[in-house]
Automatic annotation (TrEMBL):
This is DNA polymerase IV. Binds 2 magnesium ions per subunit. Mg(2+) binds at residues 19, 116. The record marks 24 as: Substrate discrimination. It catalyses: DNA(n) + a 2'-deoxyribonucleoside 5'-triphosphate = DNA(n+1) + diphosphate. Residues 15-197 form the UmuC domain.
Length: 426
């Protein structure tokens, strides 16, 4: 293979997904190889080992039956020689910046999606060699200069590149072309298609769709009846089709905000909550598009007499998710202003922004699995809205509690409604 066209048709894109393997454990092994290299290790974020949950574990530990999400006590029973390591997020940020700096040398089109993974669009990087040569160079440099392993997927789009990087771990490179999808993916269960979670997989089973191939060959009308526009997305994804672009952050934003002047004054709690939820959704969507996380929040209100008030606070942990921002916004609003007073304008501004690649968030370990399910769902919702428009997916909380309103909006917009309960303001 000598050039890009050996991988894809003319004018196609070439995307790499670079994924660090057992990142936290690998970093500790690189820092203190005499203690951790080649040993069964696990990083657990709780000071109480009895209740702590394993955030990640080395491949040596995985070979002894240890898995992510396992309670520490359970892990120690399974593997008594397991070494439990306390997280060092400053160290992880250091290594994250280092491996992304290496990747950035081969293309400015770099999108960091978390502290340990990123997408690269190398379509215009032919001067560095073939896609395989570029991937091998990046992998080898990360290993030699930083001492940590990574796997890389090469594909014509982000969806397939992500799936390819999971195929050979650790330290592997996988090419996944569109023409390979049927052979390499269609025999796999639907839950292995990136973006499909456990609940969606269960719903697919109920309509007798078990594999990615069966999903690819399902009637689109049937999928839309059951899943709305998500059904169309799933069918396209099962064929390996995705038009999501690599979105580099060109200039760091100091803040991202949105205000809305209300068509009529509002004062009751339900209306205020609904507006704050909508604004939270809009600002966090822009935040994710830029690959940023917010460490601070500011709310703005204006009363009918044109008096404007602004309040701000720092967040306990960086976030890019609308429910986190909504919870903080409502808490700040009701602490500072209370309910029952008429409002003309509401706004939310997120500040103290940092690249997501640098925001080593210490997870709430009791909600560990939910965190990753939430990120997967958010990714799919963003993809759907990128393709079908902002109204393609709305939550019930954004539309209100009147069932007739929900049904009317569903029929008029063809909207997929995700049922939820608005969290109560604290």
């Amino acid at each position: 293979m000598n050039n890009v066209n050996d991988y894809y048709p003319a004018n196609g894109r070439v995307i790499l997904h670079v994924d660090m393997n057992a990142f936290y454990c690998s970093v500790h092994a690189a820092e203190e190889p005499n203690i951790y290299a080649g040993k069964p290790t696990a990083v657990a974020g709780s000071s109480e080992q009895r209740k702590g949950v394993i955030v990640t574990c080395s491949y040596e530990a995985r070979g002894r039956g240890i898995s992510t999400g396992m309670v520490v006590n359970q892990g120690l029973r399974q593997c008594p020689e397991l070494m439990i390591i306390k997280p060092d997020f400053n160290l992880y940020r250091k290594y994250s910046k280092a491996f992304m700096s290496i990747a950035y040398e081969y293309t400015p089109q770099l999108e960091a999606t978390s502290i340990d993974e990123c997408y690269l669009d190398i379509t215009g990087s032919k001067q560095f060699g073939t896609p395989m040569e570029i991937a091998e160079t990046i992998k080898n440099r990360i290993n030699e200069e930083l001492g940590i392993p990574c796997s890389i997927g090469i594909a014509p789009n982000k969806l397939l590149a992500k799936m390819a990087s999971d195929m050979k771990k650790p330290n592997g490179i996988t090419v996944l072309r569109l023409r390979d999808v049927q052979k390499k993916l269609w025999h796999r269960p639907c839950g292995e298609l990136f973006g499909i979670g456990r609940k969606t997989e269960e719903k697919l089973r109920k309509i007798n769709i078990h594999t990615i191939g069966e999903l690819a060959n399902a009637e689109e009308g049937l999928l839309r009846d059951y899943f709305g526009v998500l059904g169309t997305w799933m069918k396209q994804a099962a064929h390996g089709i995705s038009d999501s672009e690599v979105s580099p952050v060109r200039e760091p934003n100091k803040s991202i905000g949105h205000t809305t002047t209300l068509p009529e004054d509002i004062s009751n709690e339900a209306d205020i909550n609904r507006v704050l939820l909508n604004i939270s959704d809009q600002v966090t969507r822009r935040l994710r598009r830029h690959g940023m996380m917010a460490e601070g929040i500011q709310i703005t209100i204006r009363t009918p007499d044109m008096k404007t008030m602004i309040r701000s606070q720092m967040l306990h942990t960086p976030t890019d998710h609308e429910q986190d921002i909504y919870k903080e916004a409502t808490s700040l609003f009701y602490r500072q202003f209370g309910a029952g007073k008429p409002l003309r304008l509401l706004g939310i501004t997120l500040h103290s922004l940092i690249p997501k690649s640098e925001s080593a968030v210490q997870l709430d370990l009791f909600d560990y699995e939910q965190q990753f399910k939430r990120e997967s769902l958010t990714h799919v919702m963003d993809e759907l809205r990128n393709k079908f428009g902002e109204n393609a997916v709305l939550t019930a909380g954004m539309l209100g509690n009147d069932p007739s309103v929900l049904i009317r909006n569903y029929k008029e917009r063809g909207t997929s409604l995700q049922k939820d309960n608005l969290p109560r303001p604290e």
